[in-house]
Amino acid sequence: MKPRHKRAALIAGGLASLSLATYFVLNAFQSNLVFFFSPSQISSGEAPKHRTFRVGGMVKEGTVKRDNLTVNFVVTDTAKEVSVSYTGILPDLFREGKGVVAQGKLDDSGHFTATEVLAKHDENYMPPEAQHAVDQAQKTIQTLK
Amino acid sequence: MIPEIGHFALILALGVSLSLGLIATVGGQHNRADWMAFARPGAQALWFLTMLSFGCLTYAFFTNDFSVVYVAQHSNSKLPDMYRIAGVWGGHEGSLLLWQLMLSSWMLAVSLFSRQLPAVMVSRVLGVLGLVSVGFLLFMLITSNPFLRLSEIPEDGRDLNPLLQDPGLVFHPPLLYMGYVGMAIPFAFAIAALLNGRLDAAWARWSRPWATAAWIFLTLGIALGSWWAYYELGWGGWWFWDPVENASFLPWLVCTALIHSLAVTEKRGLFRNWTIILAITSFALSLLGTFLVRSGVLTSVHAFATDPTRGVFILLFLAVVVGGSLLLYALRASKVRAGGSFALVSRETFLLINNVLLATAAASVLLGTLYPLLVDALNLGKLSVGPPYFNAVFAPIMMVVMLFMVIGSYARWKNDSAAELVKKLRPVAIASVLLGCSLPLLAGKWHALVAMGLTLSFWIILASVVQIYRHLKDKGPGQVTPLSYWGMHIAHMGIAICVIGVTMVEGYEAERDVRMGMGDTVTVSGYTFKLTDMGERLGPNYKAVVATIELTQNGKMITTLHPEKRTYLSSTMPMTEAAIHSRLSGDVYVSLGEKLDDSTAPAWAMRVYHKPFVTWIWFGCLIMALGGTIATLDRRYRKKLPRTNTPPAQPTDHPPGVTRRVNV
User: Fold this and answer.
1) For B99, B305, B316, B558, which has the most beta carbons within 10 A of its beta carbon?
2) In terms of Cα–Cα distance, which of B291, B275, B298, B425 is closest to B351?
């Protein structure tokens, strides 16, 4: 092979493997996006059933019920609510009346089974997703008035 | 009074770095020896002023001066001494000051350990760093001044976030920042070389030890952060693909590529364009990391405050740095000549492949990190990219990298024969496949991913051992093995050790959430946990519920574990403090959950883990850093070049480095 051909082969090989890599990366990317929905969006049917997504808002006061390791609570964005259950140990800062973000799936009855409840790191800090959900709901309430 | 001195020192530092940036750079361009003479003392003065300012803030913390806003927000009179000092960098403003201190320390180091460099190079490098420092000092003085006072002095401070009250805070941020900011040094060398207009092998040799040194700090900083998260967050994870972790990992990946590309540029004069791009990219990524962490766009323990002006400032700074350096590069790129040619089977090819792979890995991590932020910024909804994406993309790329790592270190520069390589590596390949595939059988359950990881790890370790053995056997009596040779092999074996840890944990870890009453037992991976007591304990600024758990294996008592649930007095914030029994073959990890008071008998939620070989992950990083340290100590970097002592009156614009052009 002449050096020129060799270089051409090298570049072609490089491009081919790079595009293959890009294909795999984008494929993995697509299937691992986790979307976020607020309780209002869930109750209006925007959220998919049986697909992993995140829900966020405030833990409604007086709704946390424990049954052994399973915890049931209600997440609200001040307009709509969704009931959530989670089995396992909750993060330290999980409290009634505080912000929460949960990841899991919605079943046909509209109950959300969480596989993960996200921890906040500071008591004064509100997860942006939860804040967003509450803000959106407040905005809707304001416009309806 | 003291905080005002600190503030004043910062303003003086801004003046010094501005004049350093202008005088040293312009002096370098016009070859004015008198102007260039300012570079070293200027950098030293900058360090002194920054240190003074830092000292003043530390003093304010230590004396509980709550009239300073920053101290009032991040300290408390009950805080133990150690955290009163480390608390200086426990928040946004102070950590920027630490950042600036690290930058000026690097500059001090360059001014002291650059005697073998031509004055014009030193002048340009320090000048560029001076300009970077102007950016950071402006950022601090305009948006994040740590010395602002309160008009009403509070009784007591708001306390440091309990998560940060750990020895990890003393070491993790300084190490990580040293690495982060260290990316500015190869960047400055690259810019200086571009200003010089001649990218030669000498530039690569001067830049190499600095790039490696920054890489060492970054490696240690990331490893320490990972370990800290592992034992402190109470969730037993060692890597979460959290955007903040990614922010530090991105410059690491690019810097790893840079170190190897610099090797090719130094030895063979090749890949110069690529090396320049990598040097610029790694610094740009560390600035991007700063933006991500400091602008408050992320939900993280590292995101201290949400202040949009800060984010905008860093973005502007990033745009100026990246835009400016790419413009300079575009103007000068035509002058960069190709160094020479190399055959398809040669060390250059394999290093190139791994460079491209590392860059691809960095790009895919960047995609996963930035995409959610971008979508959010464009108001298209909220989403996140989960760890499965990163694992699915990152693991295969790293497997190929590990494969070529060994081939690259075996192949000769310029030209090698594929048949020879196969002959040399075949026994290593066979042995590593046999070992890698059979060892998981001992664990009782064969796991394809573990077999793969172990095979690749043995591939690296065995190949290094064989190569070192052959090298020592064939070595002539008077021949000295360069330190960089040892450094390379040790660092590569560090990767292998780290990968053994990662694959064993991913393949064989066991985890259970359980409800435990007094006297209850649970068994995980052959370890039996028995809750024998619950008590209370009073710490310096918290009170804790402490469980006593007896750990037995096959009926033999191993140890007693004491996981805690702490409540900090000043903030009433609860904190899980896990109990870990660490051994070379794995960790046993218990964290205490909340009390379950739904039933009559008291019981607690508890999470128990067995994490085989988890400590190997951090130990491997330590070995990598050790390898890097040995490589930077190589005599080659300290060798005085023949003409460097001559005054730069004559055109040292063409430094006496060797631009080897090898014709094949």
Assistant:
1) B99
2) B275
Task: Using the predicted structure, report yes or no on whether residue B643 has a pLDDT greater than 60.
Answer: no
- Do B158 and B38 belong to one domain? yes
Contact assignment for B393 to A6 by CB distance below 8 Å? no
In angstroms, rounded to a whole number, what is the distance separating the alpha carbons of residues B124 and B121?
Answer: 5
Kindly state whether B338 is in contact with chain A, defined as any CB-CB distance less than 8 angstroms: no
Partner residue opposite A89 with nearest CB, options B385, B571, B605: B605
Per-residue H/E/C for B56-85: HHHHHHHCCCCCEHHHHHHCCCCCCHHHHH
From the number of C-beta atoms within 10 Å of its C-beta (0-12, 13-18, 19+), residue B112 rates as: exposed
Tell whether B502 and B521 lie within a shared domain.
no
Per-residue pLDDT band at B652 (split at 50, 70, 90) = very low
Residues B497 and B532 both lie in one domain: no
CA distance B240 to B392: 14
B520: number of Cβ within 10 Å: 16
Give the DSSP letter of residue B150.
Answer: P
Residues B483 and B600 in one domain: no
Q: Are residues B438 and B542 in the same domain?
A: no
**ipTM for the assembly:** 0.85
Looking only at the bridges linking them, the beta strands covering B586-596 and A65-67 are: unpaired
How far apart CA B481 and CA B144 sit, in angstroms, is 50
- Look at residue B127 in the predicted model and tell me its pLDDT: 96
Indicate whether B31 and B131 sit together in one domain: yes
Range of the domain at B2: 1-165
Please report residues of B whose CB lies closer than 8 A to that of A93.
Answer: 573-574
Best probe of the B interface among A10, A18, A125, A126, by most B CBs < 10 A, is A125
- CB–CB of B593/B493 below 8 Å? no
Please report the pLDDT score of residue B637 as a whole number.
83
Q: What is the pTM of this model?
A: 0.91
Partner A, chain B 351-390, Cβ-Cβ below 8 Å: 356, 360, 364, 367-368, 371, 381-386, 388-389
